[in-house]
Task: structure prediction
Amino acid sequence: MNSYFTSTLFRKTLAALSGLFLTLFLIGHLVGNLQLIMLSGSAAQEQFNEYAFFMTTNPLVKILSLLTYTSIILHTILTIFLAIQSKNARPVDYAVSSGSENSSWASRNMPLLGVLVMVFIAIHMKSFWYEMHWGQVGNDPWGNQDLYTVTVTAFREVWYTAFYVFSMIILGFHLNHGVASAFQTLGLKTQKYLSPIEKFAGAFSILVPVAFASIPIILYLQSL
Ligand code: HEM
Result:
């Protein structure tokens, strides 16, 4: 029992579960953020800021937020550890490097993709989450913190918008391999479910990043 908790299988299972929890977070976060472009002007400002107030004060959401931060930290530490471990287990590279014939580009570059997603999350949280919790965000006419103005102002900048679009492409590749691989680790990618899981991972890794990327693009175009 004790050795299970220090085993590679346990670490892989935790990495898969934290990763799948983060994909659920992404769906919720996407739905919330789509409010930025569903309405416009002061209606969008009022609704988004009310939503942000609810998300930062509701006790249940606070627990989900804590689970999200924990999952990000756990997933990062575990996957870095597992990548180093598998590199050390094979100090000499495969004689025939596993090219596109037997593995996808994303699967061979998961550590790089993961680091780039981390860089995105760090910059993203500094811009919005840190500003909302510890910055000097003014109030809107309805008395809520004006996170809407902070967000739309950020995407008036073409480079900041381009950085988001680039990061969503990276996120798409990371999800493409990550989601399918998490199901495999959990033992669910059996012959019967192989095709539906691969189809789901493929669709998820395109639709979610494209929907996310549409937000900065639309906000940038609206600001012109
Ligand atoms: C591209 C469109 C996106 C927009 C407009 C956006 C906007 C925001 C805003 C306004 C906040 C602050 C709200 C708060 O602290 O409750 C926030 C928090 C956050 N965002 Fe995003 N976001 C986007 C994409 C993403 C993506 C793709 C990820 C992950 C890969 C992500 C991860 C996070 C995390 C972890 C937080 C902190 C959540 C919490 O405190 O519970 N965001 N985002």
About this structure: Residues 22 and 68 are 7 Å apart (CA to CA). The pocket of protoporphyrin IX containing FE is lined by residues 29, 33, 36, 52, 55-56, 65, 68, 117, 121, 124-125, 128-129, 132, 147, 151, 164, 171, 212, 215-216 (CB under 6 Å).
